[in-house]
Backbone:
């Protein structure tokens, strides 16, 4: 990277303006959401829209009074963490065998796994709902944990497979020659070398599970609903209470946005398969 | 029974047969080098002995025991990889002690064995460093140290010097030879560099296309190559090969039409044009300092190279006569097999 000041050309100016435009476009809804959460309902629907106003915290207290925010937050946290751990426990050995014991069919298996992500989730709704009902797991954290883990599994296996392939096979062979069993190889050599990959894969799964709404809405009711269900509950027959809806949304996304902010380096690394160092 | 025995060992990769029925015996304490061109199967054979590749047919015996189906972790062999394959997340001490820790050896024994190996290899100042903080030569010594610490029955080296520069290669080669003398361990060493083969080996196994072409001591291979391939593989520059039809009048050569006469570059003498057994034209001179290589082309277009210890006044384009030392000719029939002189 050069320390010289930029030489402003028309092209650079246009690209910079374009980048700012896209950034503001993406960021604006979140900005407006945050702003609306601190307005009264009347201020929220004012025309023209208000940017300067006296903020209030009444919406946040109303959300907590109306529905148990802490229960929904706890459900989100538990199901996200548990599904991440479950997903890693399945994906890591799968990626290990595919990366280090490749056959002619390995690539086909990976493509098939990824192809399941191309199907809309609603296509699997009926069978999964029936399974949850028959096993008595409707409105339970266990059902959500399992469904989140399984739906994120293809991405996790792909990410770990790509990152394991960067580890030279000879290092594992050296461990084998030194007397390591498969478990020793995995635990004492592969895991320490891939802790960054596991972290970035786990982080991504955590974010995807936290934001997951479809299964949360369809498989839960009062006990196991996540924050996505909390937000959806503000869409009532009486209409949308914009201020309270915004407050509920802010309370739902704040934890994961803060978490994502602090772990953005690992997230980017995971998403770009380490291609950008 | 020999210490290591390969009995008609074969290996397939899909439909391609990489190792085609190899029989080989290696005695305890021997230093055997597998040498051959790329793709000849030398690394595959080494990996089959290590247990990193399966043996599809045949059997492998070590110290009287059939280890054909035994996993590599149980074979009591240690391997030094071409790329060193050190554990990047462990320091030098960790790398060298890993095998002993897996075997749950007492800490005092681990300390003692690692210290001894580190002393032999000059690694004592580096025990707390990670592989990233070491030079190529140091990493190679750690890889060797990792093998020594285990005191295995067999050491396997897979082109360990390929990634080192020329000066370091020479130095490390001497160290490996010294180590073998001190430890007396049975060693199998794979290389494509025949200088390593000639200088390190008790015996050399020349491989081509999954088969053994010849097994013998380095000088046996140099002086009595079994076929044209071995004759031209061993020795730098390559042995000169002249079709026998171009050498009428040069001694009584019991080689039929289609055969070849081989002569080492140091057994060619250059004379003035008009004299000598064959007339030629100088194509290229390579002064290497201690010796000079002179590339010539005969009137019939056959390229020859002569080696002499003195500098030369010849230039490219000069005409010369070439004399072949008739007592040092190697005769090969049309199939490339050696013919007794």
Residues:
């Amino acid at each position: 990277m050069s320390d010289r000041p930029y030489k402003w050309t028309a092209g650079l100016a246009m690209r910079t303006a374009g980048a700012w435009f896209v950034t503001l476009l993406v960021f604006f809804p979140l900005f407006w959401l945050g702003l609306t959460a601190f307005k009264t309902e009347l201020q929220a629907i004012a025309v023209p829209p208000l940017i300067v106003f006296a903020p209030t915290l009444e919406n946040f207290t109303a959300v907590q009074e109306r529905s148990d925010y802490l229960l929904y937050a706890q459900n989100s946290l538990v199901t996200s963490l548990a599904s991440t751990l479950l997903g890693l426990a399945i994906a890591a050995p799968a990626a290990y065998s595919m990366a280090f014991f490749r056959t002619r069919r390995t690539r086909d298996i990976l493509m098939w796994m990824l192809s399941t992500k191309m199907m809309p989730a609603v296509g699997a709704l009926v069978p999964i709902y029936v399974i949850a009902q028959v096993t008595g797991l409707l409105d339970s954290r266990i059902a959500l944990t399992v469904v989140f883990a399984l739906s994120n599994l293809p991405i996790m296996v792909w990410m770990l497979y790509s990152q394991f392939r960067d580890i030279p096979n000879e290092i594992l062979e050296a461990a084998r020659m030194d007397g390591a069993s498969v478990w020793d190889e995995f635990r004492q050599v592969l895991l320490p070398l891939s802790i960054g990959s596991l972290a970035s894969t786990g982080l991504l799964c955590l974010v995807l599970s936290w934001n997951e709404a479809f299964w949360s809405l369809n498989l839960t009711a009062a006990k196991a609903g996540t924050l996505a269900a909390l937000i959806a509950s503000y869409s009532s027959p009486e209409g949308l209470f914009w201020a309270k809806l915004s407050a509920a949304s802010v309370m739902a996304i704040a934890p994961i946005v803060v978490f994502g902010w602090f772990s953005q380096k690992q997230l980017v690394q995971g998403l770009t398969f380490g291609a950008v160092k | 029974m020999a210490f290591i025995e390969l009995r008609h060992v074969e290996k397939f990769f899909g439909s391609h047969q990489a190792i085609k029925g190899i029989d080989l015996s290696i005695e305890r304490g021997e230093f055997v080098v597998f040498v051959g061109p790329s793709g000849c199967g030398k690394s595959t054979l080494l990996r089959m002995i290590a247990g990193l590749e399966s043996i599809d047919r045949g059997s492998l015996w070590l110290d009287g025991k059939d280890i054909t189906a035994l996993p590599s972790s149980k074979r009591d062999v240690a391997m030094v990889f071409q790329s060193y394959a050190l554990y990047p997340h462990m320091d030098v001490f960790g790398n060298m002690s890993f095998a002993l820790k897996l075997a749950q050896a007492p800490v005092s024994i681990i300390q003692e064995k690692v210290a001894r190996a580190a002393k032999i290899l000059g690694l004592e100042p580096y025990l707390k460093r990670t592989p990233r903080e070491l030079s190529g030569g140091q990493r190679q010594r750690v890889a060797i140290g990792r093998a020594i610490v285990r005191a295995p029955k067999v050491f396997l080296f897979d082109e360990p010097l390929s990634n080192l520069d020329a000066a370091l290669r020479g130095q490390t080669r001497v160290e490996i030879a010294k180590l073998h003398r001190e430890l007396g361990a049975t060693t199998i060493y794979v290389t494509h560099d025949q200088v390593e083969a000639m200088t390190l080996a008790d015996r050399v196994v020349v491989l081509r296309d999954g088969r053994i072409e010849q097994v013998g001591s380095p000088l046996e291979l140099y002086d009595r190559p079994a076929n044209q391939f071995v004759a031209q593989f061993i020795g730098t520059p390559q042995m000169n090969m002249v079709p026998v039809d171009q050498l009428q009048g040069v001694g009584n050569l019991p080689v039929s039409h289609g055969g070849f006469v081989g002569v080492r570059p140091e057994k060619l003498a250059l004379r003035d044009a008009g004299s000598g057994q064959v007339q030629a034209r100088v194509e290229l001179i390579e002064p290497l300092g201690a010796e000079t290589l002179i590339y010539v082309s005969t009137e019939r277009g056959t390229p020859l190279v002569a080696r002499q210890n003195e500098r030369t006044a010849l230039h490219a384009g000069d005409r010369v006569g070439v004399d072949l030392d008739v007592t040092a000719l190697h005769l090969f029939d049309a199939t490339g097999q050696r013919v007794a002189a």
